[in-house]
Structure formats: structure tokens, C-alpha cells
Amino acid sequence: MADRGRVGRPRSARGDGYSLIELMVAVSLITIVGGFAAARVLAPVDHSRGHAAARYLAGRLGLARMMAVSRGTAVALRFDQELRGITFSVFQDGNGNGIRSADIAAGIDALIDGATALSDQFPGVEIGLIPGSPGTEAVQLGRTNLLTFTPLGTATSGTIYISDRVGTQWAVRVMGATGRTRVLRYDPPTRGWLVAE
């Protein structure tokens, strides 16, 4: 019966709830802590995405090599700078003299697969260099932007650098004599390249 006196009575000026400012401070703190936690949780995901993109590109190079051997004609990936970043397209030799830029422009060397950017399938990943990495250009194929595989399985030697959102530098290296690829990860403390597994 003692509670009957409280029914209908207005709250005191002090109140039992929280003020708007207290709620805003609490929400701000939760947002900040949540942001830090999300960054720590997503960093391994972004790192894995960079590794997956490097392996994907190595797989595309392996497929081009297999196509060159099985078709008995040269197959090449051409790397081009576009607004969305560096893309790669796949071409097949049409006249037996190898893949040439002039033959591509003339339609002699046929387009097999249109321009693809790594970021299309791996958000936050691109063919590029991070600051402080040892590379000088994102695509290093000598004086050309064509990475060609021959019917014998050999290839243009070179390296394609890949960067991810968390600042990891990856490299897909092509061995010219064998046409084989290797995925590497740059290790800043040792300033060396490690084989990515």
C-alpha cells in the first residue's frame, strides 16, 4: 500500500534516467571502440583478399600459358592504365608473328578476354605499388606492356605488383624460361620477398 502514494506523482527534477548529453557520450564511445574493433577484425580479411588476388592473377597467367601450349600459338596478357586502375586483357596471335600492339590495333591478334581490373573481384586490391616497396613500376615487363606465353610454354620474364588495402605488397613473378609463376609477399622488416603460401 505504500506504493499507492507514488502513482500519478511527477518525477523529481533530478530524475532516474539519463540526460541527452550522457547518451551522446555513451554512443560516441561505443562507436569509437567499435571502429577500432572493426579495423582489427577486417585487417586479416583485407590481407587475405590481397593474397587471393595475387593467386588469382597467377592462375590467369597459368591459364594463358596452358592456352598457348594447347592451341599452338602465342597468347598474351596486355596491361593498360585506365581510370579504374591497371587492367589486363588476353589476346591470341592471329598471324604467327607473336602478339604485337600493331596487330592488336588492326584486329589481327584477337581479343580472347576483355579488360579486367583486380578490384572488380577483390575490392581494395589493385595492381600497384605501396610506398616504400622496392619496385619502380607496378608492371615490370621490360619495355612492353605485353606478357606473352609461347606454344613452347616459355614466357616474357617479369613481375606484376599488387597492393591491398592494409598496405601489403604482393608480387606475381613470371619465370621466362619455364613460364611458371610465383606469388611473393614483401616483408618490410627484412626488406626481402617471402614465398606466399
User: β content, as a range?
Assistant: 25-35%
Query: Any idea of the CATH class?
Result: Alpha Beta
Q: Could you tell me how far the N terminus lies from the C terminus, measured between alpha carbons in angstroms?
A: 74 Å
Give the helices and strands as they follow along the chain: HEEHEHEEEEEEE
Helix content: 25-40%
Largest sheet: 6 strands, antiparallel
Low-confidence stretches: none
Number of domains: 1
Q: Tell me what the CATH architecture is.
A: 3-Layer(bab) Sandwich
State the secondary-structure class.
alpha+beta
CATH fold-level name: minor pseudopilin epsh fold
Fill in the keyword field for this structure.
minor pseudopilin epsh fold, 4-stranded antiparallel β-sheet, elongated, 197 residues
Give a summary of the structure in a few sentences.
The chain is built from 3 helices and 10 strands; from the N terminus they run H-E-E-H-E-H-E-E-E-E-E-E-E. With 197 residues, the chain is α+β, with helices and mostly antiparallel strands.
Description of the structure:
- It is built from three helices and ten strands.
- By secondary structure, it is of the alpha+beta class.
- The protein has one domain (47-195): minor pseudopilin epsh fold.
- It is elongated.
- The N and C termini lie far apart (74 Å).
- The relative contact order is 0.15.
